[in-house]
Amino acid sequence: MLKDITLGQFFPGKSLIHRLDPRAKLLILLAYFVALFLAKSYISYGLMVLFLAAATMIARIPFKSMTRGLKPMLIFIILTAVLNLLYTKGGRLLLSWKFIHIYTEGIKSAVFMALRIILLICGSFLLTYTTSPIALTDALERLLSPLKFIKVPVHELAMMMCIALRFIPTLIEETDKIMSAQKARGANFETGSLLKRAKALIPILVPLFVSAFRRADELATAMECRCYHGGEGRTRMKVLRFTWLDLGAFAVAGLLLAAVIVLRHFGL
Amino acid sequence: MDPTNPILEVKDLTHVYSAGTPFEHTAIEHISFSVGAGELIGLIGHTGSGKSTLIQHLNGLLKPTSGKVLFHGEDIWKDKKFTQSIRGRVGLVFQYPEYQLFEETCFKDIAFGPKNQGITGNELTERVYRAAAFVGLDKDILEKSPFDLSGGQKRRVAIAGVIAMEPEVLILDEPTAGLDAAGRDGILQNILDYREAQKATVIMVSHAMEEVANLCQRLIVMRKAAIAMDGTPDQVFTRARELTEMGLSVPQVTEIFLELQRRGIPVPDSVYTLSQAISALQKLKGGKTPC
User: Fold this and answer.
1) Each residue of B115-159: pLDDT tens digit?
2) What b/e sequence results for B114-152 when a residue is b if at least 16 CB atoms lie within 10 Å of its CB, and e otherwise?
3) C-alpha distances in angstroms, A249 versus A22, A213, B114, B228?
4) A206: nearest CA in chain B?
5) How far apart are CA B80 and CA B57, in angstroms?
6) Chain-chain contact of A3 with B84 (C-beta, under 8 angstroms)
7) Domains of chain A by residue range
8) B6-233: CATH architecture
9) pTM for the full model?
10) Do B61 and A180 make contact, defined as CB atoms within 8 angstroms?
């Protein structure tokens, strides 16, 4: 069922990570990404894994949900690893058979590349698992607010993103319902040629678009009825405030980044 | 009803949504009942009691987590083709069915179901006209776009879209939700006409107690994923107090008679229609005609 798509879905909770300011989480994720791309040695990768594992444990996110998120990317990860394995030269030649030559450096780069992608994905998942979409857009709006001076409509963009995120589950539910209704009338989406299956989508897409437009119209009216007129002079119900907790988190992330940079400097 | 020849049988049916995720949720649990050919059944229950999940099992839209659904004694999941054919023989009209209209004209939309059954040509045209007649749609409306119609007319077109498959069992999820009184009575009459003409079995999900109390011969009450009561309106409304405890409304007359009982006036237990109420009150006054 469509509803079962839970990738990156927010798990409500009260852990330290959940309680962090969403801006802090976004900035820390950014620092984590930078560190990830600077890491060059087993030690620095070990540090990165340790950091992520600790954060996951503190957030009380089951490791199973993390690995489940990786599943759709598995082919991509394996492909990257294999390409790196085959095309990186250097170090000792381990295996040579016909056109396949495997060097020690190749193994190293394959492992690092796969690890980098896995850590990248898991890090992002940790953010979306522990931060509600609303908090995330709020944070983005605040972090990007300096762009207002060069006339970027930051508030409007954030509002659009917020509405889009809000309506994803609604539209998925709606699609499910329309699909069931058309199936009840004998529609068949599972068999037939590609063209036939594409045509079978019309009875789903037309009602879906009609209802999406209807919803958009109703929402716009409802917002205007409550005097919405854009972001100017708008106050918030939940004001974001940095706390000591955020400071601590920044310190840990800063330490990680610094450690990776220092290690890189020493060629490790 | 012929109890020896049930048209639909539900045996120990359980359905679990999103099994194995944090969002796991058991919608119905160990449900068993059977439906005789030609019955008119009202299915009632609070929001989230599992009614919608249950009816989607009856035409093979949802696959049971465990248990079976038998149609004329055969498991509807026995093979893919059979499951597909069941959808035409057990017609399901969803809640707010007007939101599933998609064709350019009402005619084409009503023809969608029978066309999927493999019906073509004159037979198809006839089916559409017949279905339209059942729901009281004029022929000139059939050439209009469904998006230009009023809410009530759209609902009729959508119901006609299922009726056109001429199902032996017609299941409707809140067919009158959001309609005014006149539209409500009209659609209910259409459903009764179809049942009469086709000797069809009808299962109607409803919140409106007055509606099911007056129409149906059998009521199934669902509560927390299971069947709480199953019987004639008489039997069910005798337990009116339990119904109110479940958070279900009872017909207004029943409510008045419950209150009369509470105040010590000797009135019978299950009063759910106006005529019953009148005769009960007449009896109380000693057979004199009421004023």
Assistant:
1) 988 888 999 999 999 999 989 888 889 999 999 998 888 999 999
2) bbbbebeeeebeebbbbbbbbbebeeebbebebeebeeb
3) 12, 43, 63, 53
4) B102
5) 15
6) no
7) 1-131+243-268, 152-237
8) 3-Layer(aba) Sandwich (3.40)
9) 0.75
10) yes
